[in-house]
Task: inverse folding
């Protein structure tokens, strides 16, 4: 084995390809759709998520690679692969992934759904009664909004909307104007539902469904009266959807983005999906029309808009085929109607671990601030909030009640641009101060600051988070929220808001570490400190949980720490460019990914730090864009009780997971962990049992069918509070979460020995599923 110093840590062989690693993550999501231990309708939802993830991958990543190739821009990625080679490998992997998606749909999920009385009825199986109903539906609901375009010199090929459902049709005969056979295109409006519930034979609820594409295909002849349809094939085009504006040349970012949004749906084509029944001639015609290569063609056995199958999840009233609902926990200090949240925070910091902990206290804090006569100002960053947000409502109420409300809205939050423009307009009408961050840098930090007069002084209350201020995703994403009235922390957040809204030099911060100025450098310094401890024979340890890892210098620092003997565990949900298990470089680094019911979104970093046990949370992943092109925050958790909780519930439980964990091998492939002779442990299920109340009854319906999202969230919160109150009244005491082992934060975390090459033990697959 060569000496560590002789190894060039910039060697491309030490880095995994970013795009292929992202596709590996989508493959792990698809595995959830194949897992029999996952409820059936949830498996269908995972299939849909994999499809939408792949759509975005083509819209952003593949389109970027194609632009690099077209403009002759050299690709400067640490793995050293050329753009052409990357595109080739991405194409091969994506084709295999798409083929597996449709195999899972046709051979696994649809038969299983059929066995449960949820049938997707194909055209060949329609009964006479169904045919009559479908014909009426087509005539009254579909045909009036279809606009066929016959291609000729007067009717050029229409502009095809990004990811829309379309049909290309070949016809023969003579029409009213003596035009002869040719090709026509039928664009299907997005206003039409893609999955339709057929009327049932009884009152047992929806149980039979039909695809809109099947209905149109069956009645396409009615669209071309008097002509003979000789071919009808559905197709879908994926386009470049990355927005670009020259921020140095514009004077109003919102107006510029509004103009760009109009063209987003008509960017350059990057992928063509067609039904597998499509003839080679017609496929070639479409490829040439959109300027695509044969490698960009995906022939699929099923609906081209696969993600629309997720509608069955909502249409089917089958709670037995979905995850058991759970009641989010409210921290003990906030239970029993803690009406004065400011008083609670003056007694100590609070950590919220979503979705196990309710997002309600964050909303309540803003609501209380809006109605508190002592509150002078509220400042908040908003990246993604949802269409209807109780938090936004509370901020607008505060502005109308005369508070000084400032919101930093990131207009360039990808695929949320239109929603954020609308949000900015709402705030402006309410009289709030609205800014859009810094030119050239996305405001990705999650910060809330409330300035309150208390006696003769002002006190700042802050909330910092790893996720978005989005009440709905706070029930489906794992994130960390931190609430405090610490003086130094409040001053740091104040300085950050001054940066975002005003002008001035970078201020020295007491506790918060900020990008784009200091975050990467500070993290590398903490990694290097662990390496020095290891070389000196002192205890050392690094555990980091994040969504993605790709920044080369940070990876090199981790390699150097591994060479020094530091034991490093990385919990990376998505893409990871670090290659673990390389002798002499990364044999002390282990990488795992957790994929389960909740999207793992929290960022938590632990360093042994000579026994001090430093624990940080952040809005940033370890990527170039987060370190250098975004405003991000990384903040310390200092109270020992909170550090212990984050280690136990945010890191340790994930390192023990042998059910939902995927282990990254040195070849870039992931293998699912298996329990073997050990007890099966699922991190997310453990936390649900430890922190939440999971009732076995089916979820209660919202009281108003047409309720807004905000009303639904409030109704859900009310239902949960009623359940909690009912249980308290029965037991005569408040509910307490299960007790968990809490390690001493001053001691390094001791893990069981790891197996060579990160290989999980062989285990019978069925036995593993039974254990899970």
Result:
């Amino acid at each position: 084995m060569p000496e560590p110093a002789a190894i060039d840590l910039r060697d491309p062989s030490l880095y995994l390809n970013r795009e292929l690693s992202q596709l590996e993550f989508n493959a792990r999501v698809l595995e959830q759709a194949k897992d029999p231990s996952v409820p059936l309708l949830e498996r269908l939802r995972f299939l849909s998520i994999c499809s939408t993830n792949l759509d975005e991958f083509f819209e952003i990543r593949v389109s970027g690679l194609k632009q690099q190739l077209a403009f002759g821009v050299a690709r400067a990625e640490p793995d050293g692969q050329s753009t052409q080679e990357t595109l080739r490998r991405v194409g091969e992997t994506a084709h295999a992934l798409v083929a597996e998606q449709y195999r899972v749909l046709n051979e696994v999920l649809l038969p299983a759904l059929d066995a449960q009385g949820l049938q997707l009825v194909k055209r060949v199986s329609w009964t006479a009664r169904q045919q009559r109903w479908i014909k009426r539906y087509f005539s009254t609901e579909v045909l009036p909004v279809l606009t066929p375009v016959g291609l000729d010199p007067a009717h050029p090929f229409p502009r095809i909307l990004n990811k829309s459902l379309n049909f290309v049709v070949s016809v023969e005969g003579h029409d009213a104007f003596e035009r002869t056979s040719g090709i026509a295109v039928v664009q299907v409006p997005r206003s039409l539902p893609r999955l339709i519930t057929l009327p049932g034979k009884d009152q047992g609820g929806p149980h039979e469904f039909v695809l809109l594409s099947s209905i149109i295909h069956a009645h396409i002849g009615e669209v071309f009266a008097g002509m003979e349809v000789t071919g009808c094939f559905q197709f879908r085009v994926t386009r470049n959807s990355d927005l670009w504006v020259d921020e140095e040349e514009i004077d109003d970012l919102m107006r510029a983005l509004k103009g760009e949004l109009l063209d987003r749906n008509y960017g350059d084509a990057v992928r063509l999906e067609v039904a597998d029944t499509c003839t080679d001639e017609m496929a070639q015609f479409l490829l040439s029309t959109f300027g695509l290569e044969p490698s960009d063609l995906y022939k699929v056995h099923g609906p081209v808009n696969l993600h629309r199958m997720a509608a069955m999840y909502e249409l089917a009233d089958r709670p037995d085929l979905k995850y058991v609902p759970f009641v989010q926990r409210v921290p003990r200090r906030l239970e029993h109607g803690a009406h004065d949240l400011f008083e609670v925070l003056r007694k100590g910091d609070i950590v919220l671990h979503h979705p196990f902990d309710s997002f309600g206290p964050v909303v309540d804090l803003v609501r209380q601030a809006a109605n508190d006569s002592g509150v002078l100002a509220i400042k908040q960053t908003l990246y993604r909030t949802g269409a209807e947000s109780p938090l936004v409502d509370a901020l607008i109420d505060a502005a109308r009640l005369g508070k000084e409300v400032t919101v930093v809205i990131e207009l360039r939050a990808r695929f949320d641009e239109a929603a954020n423009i609308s949000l900015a307009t709402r705030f402006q009408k309410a009289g709030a101060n609205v800014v859009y961050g810094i030119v050239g840098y996305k405001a990705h930090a999650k910060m809330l600051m409330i300035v309150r007069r208390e006696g003769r002084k002002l006190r700042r209350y802050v909330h910092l988070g790893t996720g978005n201020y989005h009440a709905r995703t706070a029930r489906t994403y794992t994130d960390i929220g931190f609430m405090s009235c610490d003086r130094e922390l409040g001053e740091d957040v104040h300085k950050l808001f001054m940066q975002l809204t005003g002008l001035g030099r970078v201020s020295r911060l007491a506790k918060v570490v900020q990008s784009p100025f200091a975050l990467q450098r500070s993290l590398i310094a903490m990694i290097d400190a662990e390496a020095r401890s290891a070389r000196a024979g002192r205890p050392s340890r690094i555990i980091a949980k994040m969504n993605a890892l790709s920044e080369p210098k940070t990876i090199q620092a981790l390699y150097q720490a591994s060479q020094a003997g530091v034991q490093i565990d990385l919990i990376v949900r998505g893409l990871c460019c670090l290659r673990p298990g390389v002798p002499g470089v990364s044999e002390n680094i282990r990488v795992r990914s957790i994929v389960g019911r909740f999207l793992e979104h929290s960022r938590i970093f632990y360093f042994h730090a000579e026994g001090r046990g430093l624990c940080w949370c952040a809005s940033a992943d370890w990527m170039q864009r987060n370190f250098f092109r975004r405003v991000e925050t990384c903040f310390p958790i200092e109270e020992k009780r909170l550090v212990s909780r984050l280690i136990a519930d945010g890191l340790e439980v994930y390192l023990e997971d042998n059910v939902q964990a995927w282990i990254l091998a040195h070849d870039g492939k992931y293998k699912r962990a298996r329990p073997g002779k050990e007890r099966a442990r699922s991190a997310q299920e453990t936390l649900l049992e430890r922190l939440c109340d999971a009732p076995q009854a089916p979820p209660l319906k919202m009281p108003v069918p047409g309720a807004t999202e905000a009303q639904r969230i409030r109704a859900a919160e009310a239902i949960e509070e009623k359940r909690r109150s009912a249980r308290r009244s029965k037991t005569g005491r408040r509910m307490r979460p299960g007790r968990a082992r809490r390690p001493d934060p001053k001691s390094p975390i001791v893990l069981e020995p790891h197996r060579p090459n990160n290989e999980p033990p062989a285990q019978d697959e069925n036995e593993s599923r039974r254990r899970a």
Summary: The first helix runs from residue 18 to 34.
